[in-house]
Specification:
Blueprint: H1 8-33, E1 38-47, H2 56-64, E2 72-79, E3 87-92, E4 95-99, H3 117-130, E5 133-141, E6 150-153, E7 156-158, H4 160-172, E8 177-183, H5 190-195, E9 200-205, H6 217-226, H7 232-250, E10 255-261, H8 265-280, H9 283-295, E11 305-307, H10 308-319, H11 322-338, E12 339-345, E13 360-362, H12 376-380, H13 383-390, E14 405-411, E15 421-428, E16 434-441, E17 447-453, E18 457-463, E19 469-470, E20 472-479, E21 482-489, E22 494-495, E23 498-507, E24 517-521, E25 527-532, E26 538-544, E27 552-560, E28 563-571, E29 575-577, E30 580-582, H14 586-630
Parallel strand pairs: 1-2, 1-5, 5-8, 8-9, 23-29, 23-30
Antiparallel strand pairs: 2-3, 3-4, 6-7, 9-10, 10-12, 11-13, 14-15, 15-18, 16-17, 16-20, 19-22, 20-21, 23-26, 24-25, 24-27, 27-28
């Protein structure tokens, strides 16, 4: 029998089906081997060989509620408290896929020490190689003890130096982690987060303890499953919100959590270094104030961990030390840049966290232990030296102080009633290695003038300020580089002058509003000055700069009947301009215009009537006066009716005498 060739379209169709099946099979095999690129890979380093061993199952079950997918891989290295129980898992929906530990490292057995940094490095590098993704999260799960360490395996923690080594190795392998999420207690410390700076872009950490249930993993992983294209920043914020929202309903403990920009940590640590060096110079003089400020600062669950922002604020308020205040501003600016997002909630049954700001710092009542000196913060800053200098004063509050007699007043040199010169004088005692310094700060808080001397005796220092407002002066006396006297003067140093505020008040349809009251008010509502607008809505208000408020944040109030608008003048100085636009309807503007027209017409009619009345009665009155003058009384009263009437032609001509007032 003769064979027939298959139609061409059937051959093409068969090849297409075979290729499609092969492609599907390759994609499936590729996905199982983890060689396709997902949106996210979420790595959990689950160190449960501790008292948290019984909590491992609960969190794994939460992860299984979401499970891995094409967009999300959930890879877990988990170890519990029994022997040979280390597992490597790819968490799936309602289950998990066990992966051989030897595939990560040929030397790995079934019992690993997760307290070793190399275990962490091997896990991360293997996971990234086998489950590549656009974004990576490394979740450190376990106990945390602040700067002392995290993720203990029995008694072996990942200490600060080991964290630094692990992050450096991960970075050197060319791996860029988007987020390191630390599901552990007390890890929101500058000392801890600074160690992570080489390994990731962001860190998620808590200043306080974390409940044993940890993150609500079902809700957290659902964020990535539902929105795989979410940015790392938005995911970090969403994780914090899910944690806090969960805690509001379920936690018996106070909660804190913050998203930290690790790229900002070096700037923060540099600012802390400058602050620490200055603080070390003051401890013998300000020991009581520093200890009191520390006691007033919010402390968290660990050993002497204090919120950094709150601590600096309290030191400033207790010492009024201008140099530390200036340096603290640099720290706070850097801290604000580092803390991308922060939330805290206080459970009244637990310790408060009303003043949590994202990162805490170590401040013990004794010298820091040798292990602390190995931290990067201890090595890169003078904070550990400051702690060591402070330690003796917790048990002995003796103060090193020498007397310093000084005066600082403002004077009026040109007798115009305005102070224009500062006269400062100080008697510096003579002793070995002494020096004196003066700093004058302007109304905006910036350094305006400084003076120093290495000799003793009477010193007179004049200074002519430029900007209007209240100034302050800081006097420093040093001995061998240590502060032995500090005096701060914030009164009687005023640069006085006049300032003008001008502007225009218009309606919402552009009409100038006249007779509108303008008032300049201080914070307590007292009036500094007031005026009203002219016929076109313009106003000019000239006032003396109030030195008690430094001319800062004054309120300029514009009122029109029940309508009122306020504006804040950031700094009253020289000439200031401020316009107002009041919401006035067309009808009310028309009503005001009509009222103005009526009042103007009425005034014009009254003026005309008055003028006409004066023309009618004026000559008659003057004629009568002339008659009295022409016929004076000679001791007897003579009535006008008795005066004989003269002929019209003989009456004197009426004229105006410029020298006479009628």
């Amino acid at each position: 029998m003769e064979s027939k060739a298959l139609p061409r379209f059937l051959v093409v169709l068969s090849l297409f089906v075979l290729l499609s099946a092969f492609s599907v099979n390759m994609q499936t095999t590729s996905a199982q081997n983890g060689t396709t690129t997902s949106d996210w890979t979420y790595m959990v380093y689950m160190s449960g060989d501790s008292s948290l061993s019984s909590n491992v199952g609960d969190d794994l079950n939460e992860m299984k509620e979401v499970g891995s997918s094409d967009d999300l891989n959930i890879i877990v290295l988990v170890d519990q408290s029994t022997s040979v129980d280390t597992q490597l898992l790819r968490v799936m929906a309602a289950g998990s896929e066990s992966l051989p530990l030897s595939s990560v490292n040929a030397t790995w057995g079934n019992e690993l020490n997760l307290g070793r940094p190399q275990t962490l490095v091997d896990f991360v590098t293997w996971t990234v190689a086998n489950y590549p993704a656009d974004h990576y999260v490394l979740d450190l799960w376990g106990h945390g003890t602040g700067w002392s360490g995290v993720c203990p395996d029995k008694d072996d923690f990942l200490e600060p130096t080991e964290l630094r080594l692990a992050m450096s190795s991960i970075a050197n392998a060319g791996i860029h982690l988007d987020i390191i999420s630390i599901d552990a207690c007390q890890m929101g410390m500058v000392e801890t987060v600074y160690e992570l700076r080489q390994g990731a872009e962001f860190a998620i950490v808590s200043e306080k303890d974390v409940p044993v249930s940890g993150w609500p993993y079902a809700e957290v992983l659902a964020i990535l499953a539902d929105e795989p294209t979410i940015s790392p920043t938005d995911f970090g914020i969403a994780l914090i919100d899910e944690y806090m929202d969960w805690g509001l309903m379920h936690s018996r403990y106070t909660l804190t959590l913050a998203l930290i920009d690790l790229g900002s940590m070096e700037a923060l640590v540099n600012a802390i270094d400058a602050y620490s060096s200055e603080a070390s110079n003051t401890v013998g003089y300000f020991n009581y104030e520093l200890i009191t400020a520390r006691m007033a600062t919010e402390e968290y669950d660990g050993s002497y961990q204090y919120d950094l922002w709150h601590l600096l604020e309290n030191i400033n308020s207790h010492t009024e030390y201008k140099r530390l205040e200036t340096l603290s501003k640099d720290v706070l600016v850097a801290l604000d840049a580092a803390v991308v997002y922060e939330r805290h909630w206080t459970n009244t049954l637990d310790e408060p966290a009303y003043n949590a700001n994202g990162l805490s710092v170590y401040f013990p009542p004794n010298a820091p232990p040798s292990a602390y000196l190995t931290t990067s913060l201890g090595q890169d800053t003078a904070w550990d030296e400051f702690l060591a200098d402070m330690a003796p004063y917790f048990s002995n509050l003796v103060k090193s102080e020498r007397p310093l007699n000084l005066t600082a007043v403002s004077v009026d040199t040109d007798s115009d009633g305005l102070a224009d010169l500062f006269e400062m004088s100080v008697f510096v005692p003579s002793f070995q290695a002494s020096s004196f310094e003066l700093e004058v700060y302007g109304p905006d808080g910036s350094l305006a003038f400084e003076y120093s001397s290495g000799s003793g005796g009477q010193i007179n220092i004049p200074y002519t300020p430029e900007a209007l407002g209240a100034y302050s002066a800081a006097f420093y006396l040093w001995e061998d580089g240590s502060l032995v006297n500090y005096s701060y003067v914030d009164s009687d140093l005023n640069k006085e002058g006049w300032s003008t505020v001008s502007g225009r008040v218009t309606s919402n349809i552009g009409r100038g509003l006249k007779w509108t009251q303008i008032k300049l008010l201080e914070a307590d509502g007292s009036i500094i000055g007031s005026t009203v607008t002219d016929f076109d809505g313009h106003f000019i208000l000239t006032v003396k700069v109030p030195t008690d408020t430094e001319g800062v944040n004054l309120t300029l109030s514009c009122g029109l009947g029940s309508r009122q608008q306020n504006a804040t003048l950031q700094q009253l100085f020289g000439t200031n301009e401020q316009d107002f636009e009041l919401e006035t309807s067309h009808l009310s503007v028309l009503w005001l215009a009509c009222l103005t027209v009526v009042l103007n017409v009425s005034a014009l009619v009254i003026l005309i009537l008055w003028f006409l009345g004066g023309r009618v009665t004026g000559p008659h009155s003057r004629e009568e006066d002339n008659r009295w003058e022409d016929h004076p009384s000679s001791g007897e009263e003579q009535h006008l009716s008795e005066v004989p009437e003269e002929p019209y032609s003989e009456r004197p001509e009426l004229h105006t005498d410029k020298n006479k007032t009628f």
